[in-house]
Amino acid sequence: MMLFSQDGNGSILYMYLLPIVAALLGGSVFAREKFSGRLRELEPRPSRSSLLNTSLCSGFILGGLAGVSPLLINLVFAVAKAPHMSFISGRSTVISNPNGKKAMSYVLIEEHNWAYPLYKFSQPLLVVLVFLSVFVVAGLLADIAVGASFFSRYKHVELLVPFVLFLIAWYAPEISGGLLPYDLDLSYMEFLYVALMTVNGAFIPSLMKAVVLPGTIVVVLAVLKKRRDDA
């Protein structure tokens, strides 16, 4: 299934489109109220604060559901087509084919990957953890769109903000002109794409970049919005 397979471009495409998919469903919950004119009816400050919190919660849930839906559909097809949950060693070894040629053994998740210990302990548990992680990351991406809609003067602009920020995080080393190391990955892909061969981050650093970084952006946008409303 996606995120656990290095064959084809399905996982890469899914990771790239995750910010857009999450924002499409959960990123405009506040913008719809704003551009419809209904926000003008919420003059008391407690009501505006409640609407802000409700918008963030709704955006998080809707964005999380949107993010895991393609993965869940893919899981159903994967299980129906080729169910396989047995453990595969994460250490590449040279093997001999029946025709006498040498080849490298198949590796699903490499030993240096943060997910490998859990994969070795329980494959179903790892699948559940990845689904929960995708839900949280997609929900935060949707909330970034919600936060952007607090300040946007145009419709649908907020839908592009998470995707643009993802690209900036992904290409940060190139954009920095050498100030950042080229092997630095600030995106969530290092954490969610568990079968990616280049993934070598530990659990905590990968989690920080996937969850804490977008979560901090959401908090900053929410605080700025509340301060502007209180001004």
Describe the model.
- With 231 residues, the chain is an all-alpha fold.
- The protein is built from 9 helices and 2 strands; from the N terminus they run αααββαααααα.
- The chain has helices at residues 10-26, 29-36, 45-81, 116-121, 123-149, 161-170, 172-175, 189-192, 203-230, and strands at residues 94-96, 102-104.
- Strands 1-2 form a two-stranded antiparallel ribbon.
- A hairpin with a 5-residue loop joins strand 1 and strand 2 (102-104).
- Helix 5 runs parallel beside helix 9.
- The radius of gyration is 21 Å and the shape is elongated.
- The mean pLDDT is 82.
Task: Based on Cα principal axes, name the global outline.
Answer: elongated
Question: How many helices does DSSP assign?
Answer: 9
Residue-averaged pLDDT: 82
- Extended strand count: 2
Distance between the termini: 50 Å
Sheet with most strands: 2 strands, antiparallel
Tell me the fraction of residues in β-strands, as a range.
under 5%
The helix/strand order is HHHEEHHHHHH
Radius of gyration: 21 Å
Structural class: mainly alpha
How would you write the strand order of the largest sheet? 1-2
| Poorly predicted segments | none
Give the helix level as a range of percent: 55-70%
Supply the key terms.
61% helix, 3% strand, elongated
Short description:
This protein is mainly α and 231 residues long. 61% of the residues lie in helices and 3% in strands.
